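Dear colleague,

As promised, here are the two records you asked about, laid out in our usual form so they can be pasted straight into your sheet.

NAME FIELD: protein one
SEQUENCE, THEN STRUCTURE:
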Amino acid sequence: MISLKGFEERKPAWEQLNKITERLSKKDATIWGESASAEASIRLGWVDLPETSRDLLPTLDSLSAWSRELGHTHFILCGMGGSSLAPEVIAATYKKSLTVLDSTDPTQIELVAEFDLRSTCIIISSKSGSTVETASQKSFFVKKLMDMGLDPKNHFVVVTDPGSPLEVESRGEGLKVITADPNVGGRFSALSAFGLTPAALIGVDVSVLLDDALAASKTFTEPNSSVVRMAALLAEPTFAFTGFYDRDSELVGISDWIEQLIAESTGKDGKGVLPVVLDSYQSNLYPVIGFSDAHNYSVLGPLGAQFIFWEWVTALLSYLLAVDPFNQPNVTESKDRTNSLLKIWSEKEIAIYQPIFTSGSVEVFSATKLNSLSEYLREFAGHQYIAVMAYLNRISDQSLAGLRSIIESRTRKVTTFGWGPRFLHSTGQFHKGGPTSGSFIQITTSELPELEIPGREFTFGTLLMAQALGDNEALTSRGFPILRLNLKDRKTGIAELLQAAKEI
């Protein structure tokens, strides 16, 4: 069950939403308007996943037995956005070991590949079956296993939609394949095969997640239910930016999952609510929601209940904002720009860009000539929010994440932080489709080892840079202020950036 703290003040939208909850429980695709109904009609399978996903349990039990028989002790999940965020939260909540690979940074891939692959199960997770990051990671690990004399059939589990290119390829290779409900969108898939398959493999009793979700969902159509109260509050202008803090709870990482769910679902048509994932519970700039009883605003309940709760909240919030919660037009745009750059670079040499300013190990790419890194960071604090986008290794370059709180405290502007390319499947939609009130700081590096992608004409490093510059183009084309900071050396460059931010 879900209980709320601090959400009792009646809002005008309560009665409006009370009329919608019963329709949502019956998967009424017309809730979000005529233009959204076609997409909604094939994206509402998540509503009854607490019941329908029980059909997966025998298959997952069999799969787990297969994995134990083969002696798998390490589990690597290759997936982006909705395919990886929920399993990562599940693993952290149940204190199980799962390594999530949601990057094309070659140093992060090499680091993950240091596991003893003889005892490793690699989960390849992609709804479309054509996600470039996941396809590249699969090719990399297939070759690595074969080079070691290992049979990929004993080390791979593939989760995808039925009929996807990934399903066809993987079945042809004799790999274990679990197909998900195709009527569930990626970011609403926590309780589908995408969330439950990795959970079962690492030893989580997924029936508990489903039981908790089902018990919670049965309360959502009651008058003034928890989902009604939360959605109504998030639709208020004061919650346009909302902090989420989970570090003092048992649900570490749920803020990142909520960030994708809400930002990608609502950030379009110039509207949206932007979650701000916090590493400390403090902000005078926006309200903060926590997941323990210690906070003024808190959402309490087990993980399965939280998953279905926030999915309902997001659907109802999108109704109030009059946006289609199930499309993501600008995510596709970034993919197209990435592919265009890769095609150009395959025919010509990769373009060499000249920085307008260099400070130590940091090269600055900007339309403006200033005199220091601190000046540049200050210059790009002119909009309502600042998005820091780091195309680096979120394992070994983790200290860079501290840049968010430093910039926010020094500029007094709402600041978010995202690891690229994973944020492209999350807040990347909000950046380009939401309110035009952001300024963007992009961090890249030229310190990229050559790591081949089998079967491709480009390396992981080239792919990573194409993703960064493709998104840069998408933001620039809209006239948004964007600053690219390129680290010639990761360690010293990060130290310089953190120091420069303190001097704003």
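NAME FIELD: protein two
SEQUENCE, THEN STRUCTURE:
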Amino acid sequence: EKKIANLQKNNAELKKRITKLSNQNHQIGQQNAEQQNQLRLSQQELQKQQQRLQQLQDILQQQRIQSEMLKNKMLEALKGFNSNDLSVIQKNGKVYVSLSENLLFPSGSAVVNPKGIDALSKLAAVLNLNGDVAVNIEGHTDSIPIRGRYQDNWDLSTARADAIVRILVNTYRVDPKRVIASGHSYFDPVETNSTPEGRARNRRTEIILSPKLDEMYTLLEL
């Protein structure tokens, strides 16, 4: 009877252990299911991120192709001008058309000369055929203080950018919603201002053309 009692006691303890292990096994199964679910969700999120990344890369590639085509069109339209007065380059997905003071303006003036108007007419023709391109016009000067009707180099650089905007918009009907004008004075030089040659290069107007990236911005907001 004593042995039976001990065996019954051991049996009860074993049942408790079995129950405890079963509960632990159930909990482990639940944890494993949760981990599997989290893994599945993570894989789905990774797949979505990879799809977005691929879409962004496709858009950037499209922008590079559009910029290259736009650069070539500008080079073709402006090929008759002296390379010392005008350059067209592609950088960071944008096209930079740099026009020297000599091409556009008399010294110290914001009145565009006939040769400059001719260049702007050819540039505007390309812009009007590419309506999805934003146009940022930046005026730049050298560091020599200005004298005359303009207060300072800020004033002159801004007036020159404004003058070009008015010609593009009023004369050649470029959509004004696409155009921004800004003056940078002498604070964004491309050469040193300590030599006449460097100052001549710094006296310029840059027309920066940017293919619109609305599709990319929409993806980034998701």
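A couple of things worth noting about protein two: The chain has a mean pLDDT of 91. The radius of gyration is 34 Å.

Best,
R.
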